[in-house]
Amino acid sequence: MARGNLVGFVGNFSRPSKSFALVEAVANLAEERYGLAPRLHDLISVGPSLGNARSYKDLDETGRQVVQDIIAADALIIGTPTYKGSYTGLFKHLIDLIDPLALQGKPVILTATGGGERHALIVEHQLRPLFGFFMAHTLPSAVYAADRDFTDYRLVSDPIRSRVEQAVAELGAFFSSARLAVAAE
């Protein structure tokens, strides 16, 4: 059986980044647990055409491929750093280029990072409504991590790792028992 397609997209335009590291930690666990084939992108992956794109067709080939990866994914991991209580503007701009029905029913693990706990509600007040508009199935457990949860861009917090495990466990409801059996082999 073919491996499922898992795409992580991070609304960050710097590398390395804690947001990318968090999405990567979730993707690695999902790959390990379910045999999903992860593909990770960030705003740098999209390329310079994003800022001037008024529609999907205005993106260059690289940017269109990132959007196609997002649309074609069997499951998504979405991550963003927190800027002034919300996601980044270019992240939202890319999401705006996706057809509103393209993500319908798709399972999505939501993640975000920020300087401290004060930004933790970004997931519930910003990301969940955004993907609700797309009728995506945002999983109940989201993951927020603060600066102190990382060392050298690696997730080191045991409570946050537990939260990652919980979110990834919820992803299992979207994959057949046959797929899960293949992943366990």
From TrEMBL:
GO MF entries: oxidoreductase activity
InterPro entries the UniProt entry points to: Flavoprotein-like_sf, FMN_Rdtase-like_dom, FMN_Rdtase_MsuE-like, NAD(P)H-dep_FMN_reductase
Top-level taxon: Bacteria
Cross-referenced Gene3D superfamilies: 3.40.50.360
Record key words, sorted: Flavoprotein, FMN, Oxidoreductase
Residues of the NADPH-dependent FMN reductase-like domain: 6-148
PANTHER family on file: FMN REDUCTASE (NADPH)
Similarity comment: Belongs to the SsuE family.
Name of the protein this chain belongs to: FMN reductase
Source organism of this protein record: Mesorhizobium zhangyense
